[in-house]
Automatic annotation (TrEMBL):
Keywords: Antiport, Cell membrane, Membrane, Transmembrane, Transmembrane helix, Transport. This is Na+/H+ antiporter NhaC. It comes from Pseudoalteromonas rubra. It is found in: Cell membrane. GO terms for cellular component: plasma membrane. Pfam families: Na_H_antiporter (PF03553). It is a multi-pass membrane protein. One of its GO terms (molecular function) is antiporter activity. Belongs to the NhaC Na(+)/H(+) (TC 2.A.35) antiporter family.
Amino acid sequence: MRQQKQASYLDAFIPIVVLVSLLGAAVYLYGDNSSSGPNQIALLFATFTAALIGLKNGFTWKTLEEAMIKGITISLGAILILLMVGALIGTWLLSGTVPTLIYYGLQIIHPSWFYAAGCLICGIVAMSIGSSWTTAATIGVALLGVANGLGLDPVVTAGAVISGAYFGDKLSPLSETTNLAPAVAGSDLFEHIQHMLWTTVPSFVIALIIFIFMGFNADVSSESSKIDEIATILQSNFNISIINLVPLAILLGLAIKKMPAFPAISIGAVIGAIWALLFQGDLIASQVNPDEGVLVSHFKLVWATFFDGFSLETGNAKMDDLLSGGGMSSMLTTTWLVMTALMFGAIMEKTGLLELFVKSILKVAKSTGSLIASTVATCFGTNLVAADQYIAIVVPGRMFKEEYKQRGLRSVNLSRTLEDGGTITSPLIPWNTCGAYMQSVLLINPLDYAVYAFFNLINPFLAIVYAYLGIKILKIKPKTMQQEKSASDAS
């Protein structure tokens, strides 16, 4: 058995330099299409580079291969959700659920407060169901359709959707990350949520104010005439009715009842298909070959919607793009990106290269402010390198846990910081699992909407400001120390 050597700082930097260089080249050469293959190749080459360093330091290929397989295994739950979300978008387009949301949204949401309203709606829904992903795939897709009808910027709209979805997800006790962070840090779930309010709510309020300002200054007068045209196209192609929103209501109800995401979204997709057969008969009839018979042709179209999405030709190119899409096949590129990203993250963690970065950070983090700022930076860096928000919570959480305790800081400080730096920044990175997912659903590059995801930008910054000013930084008391020790032992 070969002796494993301690990785050097040069070892740790080489894969990062390779990754950043190749990702930069991918964006330069391919632009918005960089996530459709070029980024995946960049991640694979960076993974091979890290693996070579691991082999040099005494790791066997079998060990490294097992780490990569384990990394991919971690993503399987997310991949299942991704595929089923693709099916859900397809069936909800065919069933009229998304078109109905767009139609009613055009009637009730005024352009001047659309961005803020969209952000707030996404926040409420995500808090209710505990899922930023489901919120973006349903409410977010509909809001982008409304933005198109109102002549508003879809990139800003995507920023509002991301801001609201992650605000609600972060504060929901139903959210996986909201449960994961206190479990890793050793704090109580509801104390963790209460402590997060101090950084999360002010950040969200500031974001809403910015969106309100942007809405009132948006120039939509020349585009407002399109609303009637879009409403007419929707009504002429779909049976628009409040009953089309039943699949959405059922999905939200299942999520509130804490049903896991995969079966809940699966049920939502199936109900969408049933609703299409029940209420969109004329639309389906216009899409099928009548020679195959009504039963066979209708069933064949709905089946195809699950795996290949829905396509509509209205005579208006923008509306065709808006009302077409979905299907499991639309998520395959994202699945590829998720797998390659987690392979790279797994190799970096297994070979000790990630840990090396954290240890070097701790050497310079002398004050409480610098420790929390370093934790935020480490979470963001892990999101960049390991490309997954769960890893960006678990790895820094494990590495900083004892340091917080030794400095007399309560574990809720760590759990809050893990969310401020890890959960919030994940959708801003194109090759991160969250960023890749949001691009596949909203069809907008994270590098574009990141500028307008104000909540996600403000929250980490505010957390650092609080840390240096000593605002709501809780210290360990004897009684609290015993409680946290019990929570830590239980987790």
